[in-house]
């Protein structure tokens, strides 16, 4: 009896289980990535059956990314953890986080330093991660939105954004929160107008500004 | 973005060595101009030398009462420095009016001086551009030129210099300290920038392999006041349509000494000695302010979409003069 050909979904689910066994990560993003890979696998299966059997390549301790031509090994300290990775010098910190380090909490809005969605902290100071190269930040302490909560407790700014409904679609939100957290330690006037000015590097297409300002002011009073 | 070789320099001499005799090497400091333009393929260096570790991060008073600013001092640190806020107020105001808090945390003093124009055609390689490729043409002159310059233009280029900090530093008569293959030299900021002429690709006097190490500000006489006013479509996070930096010393109602620079309207940060000459020794009055503004914009060459800047710049300068001379 011929084995039923697997559907693309079934192949994707198998790949997913395999991947989550090794890396412990099962996310929407990884599932969608596997769908793409799986559709390739379905079309190449007939060819593989006729190819000569090869010895599997033994697993090495190679740094992730080392197989890319021009990749340079580096160590990045993110949210208190050291990540050993090899990346081309032209990879921005934003892309390294999202595409190579499985930390997609930092968002890409404009990719040109004009929207602030990519805001994170380098040594406690807020910057646009889209306009800097990952390789420039070895030895720096990088903090992303994923690193704000401590021991399961939300950061006060995160809690304030929830309490004051400081977001709609949520895409600018991690940048807004990272900006606001840094703002707590910067000179900024007391009134709402001053907060608007100090938060002017983070734009919100949904227009949640009033609630964002309320959240920031609330966090400042509590901080 | 094209791939490139990456180096990190820890000393000024190793930074200079890393770029010596190479036409396609660039320093990267904050990256807020360079990385932006590399993503657009406007800048395509084959080698990038990271100068963020260079020991050029101090703001120090000089023996004569002036200020020495390291080229790697971040814009935010310079803006919030106590001496700058109190003595060189126009510089702090100009810095805080520019960019965003995130960008100000990244941007360096040297890099701010060297930032490139925001001309839409320069930034889009689908268009010809005399600044990117001399001789290829200027689509802005007969194109959409609302943000372009009315002073210092030529038939080859009308691109505006977008920096606020440089305008304030122009009015403060800053001096740029440079190290390069041929040693050290100091260039007054007023002589640092070049008009586009027929070579808009050359924007300043830096030679191949040069590195800005410091900017110094001369001392200001006690009682000198200064102010920066920036006018633009949005209230924040946008470049100037017109701005003015004024540094003035009054004796009663009389203007003893004044320095004036305009932003948003020139192909380089625009020092206006014409306006200064009208005002020095004269009474601080609306009529005299307006006369100075007329003199400053006398040679303005408006284009199809930026003619409004002529009157806007006059009013901007007049308002800035009023603000400076009437603060207690």
Give a description of the structure.
The complex is a heterodimer of chains A (223) and B (328). Among the domains of chain A are: 72-147, Beta-grasp domain (Ubiquitin-like (UB roll), Roll); 156-222, DNA polymerase, domain 1 (Orthogonal Bundle), CATH 1.10.150.120. Chain A has helices at residues 8-23, 28-50, 93-100, 156-163, 173-183, 192-198, 209-222; strands at 72-78, 81-87, 119-122, 125-128, 141-143. Chain A has 223 residues and is of the alpha+beta class. Helices cover 39% and strands 11% of the residues of chain A. A 5-stranded mixed β-sheet of chain A has the order 2-1-5-3-4, with helices on both faces. With 328 residues, chain B is of the alpha+beta class. Among the domains of chain B are: 5-50, Uridine Diphospho-n-acetylenolpyruvylglucosamine Reductase, domain 2, CATH 3.30.43; 225-326, Enolase-like, domain 1 (2-Layer Sandwich). In chain B, strands 4-5-8-6-7 form a 5-stranded antiparallel β-sheet. In chain B, strands 9-10-11-12 form a 4-stranded antiparallel β-sheet. The mean pLDDT of chain B is 97. The chains are: A alpha+beta (223), B alpha+beta (328).
Helices and strands of chain B, in order, run as: EHEHEEEHHHHHHEEHEEEEEHHH
Low-confidence stretches of chain B: none
**How confident is the prediction overall: mean pLDDT of chain B?**
97
Secondary-structure arrangement, i.e. CATH architecture of one domain in chain A: Roll
CATH hierarchy class name of one domain in chain A: Alpha Beta
Beta strands of chain B, count: 12
Principal-axis shape of chain B: globular
Tally of helical runs of chain A = 7
Give the overall pLDDT of chain A as a whole number: 86
- Note the main sheet of chain A: 5 strands, mixed
CATH class of one domain in chain B: Alpha Beta
* Quaternary form: heterodimer
The CATH topology name of one domain in chain A reads Ubiquitin-like (UB roll)
Secondary structure tally, helices of chain B: 12
DSSP strand content of chain A = 5-15%
Distance between the ends of chain A: 69 Å
Termini separation of chain B = 52 Å
Strand neighbour order, sheet with most strands of chain B: 4-5-8-6-7
Radius of gyration of chain A: 22 Å
């Amino acid at each position: 009896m011929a084995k039923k050909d697997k559907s693309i979904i079934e192949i994707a689910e198998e790949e997913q289980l395999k991947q989550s066994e090794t890396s412990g990560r099962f996310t929407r993003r990884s599932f969608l990535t596997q769908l793409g890979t799986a559709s390739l696998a379905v079309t190449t299966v007939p060819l593989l059956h006729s190819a000569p059997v090869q010895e599997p390549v033994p697993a090495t301790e190679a740094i992730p990314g080392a197989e890319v031509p021009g990749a340079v090994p580096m160590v990045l300290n993110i949210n208190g953890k050291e990540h050993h990775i090899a990346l081309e010098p032209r990879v921005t910190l934003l892309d390294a986080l999202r595409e190579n380090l499985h930390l997609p909490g930092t968002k890409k809005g404009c990719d040109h330093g004009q929207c602030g969605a990519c805001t994170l902290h380098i040594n406690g100071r807020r910057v646009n991660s889209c306009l800097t190269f990952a390789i420039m930040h070895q030895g720096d302490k990088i903090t992303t939105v994923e690193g704000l909560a401590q021991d399961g407790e939300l950061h006060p700014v995160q809690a304030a954004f929830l309490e004051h409904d400081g977001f709609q679609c949520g895409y600018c939100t991690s940048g807004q929160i990272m900006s606001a957290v840094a703002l707590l330690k910067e000179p900024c006037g007391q009134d709402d107008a001053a907060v608007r000015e100090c938060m002017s590097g983070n734009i919100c297409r949904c227009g949640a500004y009033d609630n964002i300002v309320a959240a920031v002011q609330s966090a400042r009073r509590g901080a | 973005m094209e791939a490139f070789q990456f180096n990190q320099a820890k000393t000024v001499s190793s930074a200079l060595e890393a770029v010596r005799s190479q036409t396609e090497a660039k320093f990267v400091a904050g990256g807020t101009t360079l990385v932006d333009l590399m993503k657009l393929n406007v800048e395509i260096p084959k080698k990038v030398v990271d100068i963020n570790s260079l020991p050029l991060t101090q703001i120090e008073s000089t023996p004569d009462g002036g200020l020495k600013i390291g080229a790697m001092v971040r814009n935010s640190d310079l803006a919030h420095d106590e001496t700058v806020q109190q003595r060189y107020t126009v510089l702090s105001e100009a810095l805080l009016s520019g960019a965003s808090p995130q960008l100000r945390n990244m941007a360096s003093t040297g890099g701010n001086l060297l930032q490139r124009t925001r001309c839409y055609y320069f930034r889009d390689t689908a268009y010809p551009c005399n600044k990117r490729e001399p001789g290829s043409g200027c689509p802005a002159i007969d194109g959409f030129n609302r943000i372009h310059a009315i002073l210092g233009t030529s038939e080859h280029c009308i691109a505006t210099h977008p920096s606020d900090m440089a305008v304030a530093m122009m009015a403060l008569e800053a001096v740029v300290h440079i190290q390069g293959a041929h040693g050290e030299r100091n260039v007054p900021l007023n002589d640092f920038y070049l008009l586009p002429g027929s070579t808009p690709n050359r924007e300043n006097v830096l030679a191949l392999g040069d590195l800005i190490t410091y900017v110094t500000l001369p001392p200001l006489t006690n009682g000198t006041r200064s102010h920066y006013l920036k006018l633009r479509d949005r209230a924040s996070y946008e470049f100037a349509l017109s701005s003015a930096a004024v540094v003035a010393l009054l004796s009663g109602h009389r203007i003893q000494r004044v320095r004036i620079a305009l932003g948003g309207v020139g192909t380089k940060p625009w020092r206006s000695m014409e306006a200064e000459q009208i005002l020095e020794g004269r009474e601080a009055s609306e009529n005299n302010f307006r006369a100075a503004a007329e003199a400053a914009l006398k040679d303005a060459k408006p284009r199809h979409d930026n003619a409004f800047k002529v009157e806007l710049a006059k009013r901007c300068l007049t308002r800035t003069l009023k603000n400076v001379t009437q603060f207690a």
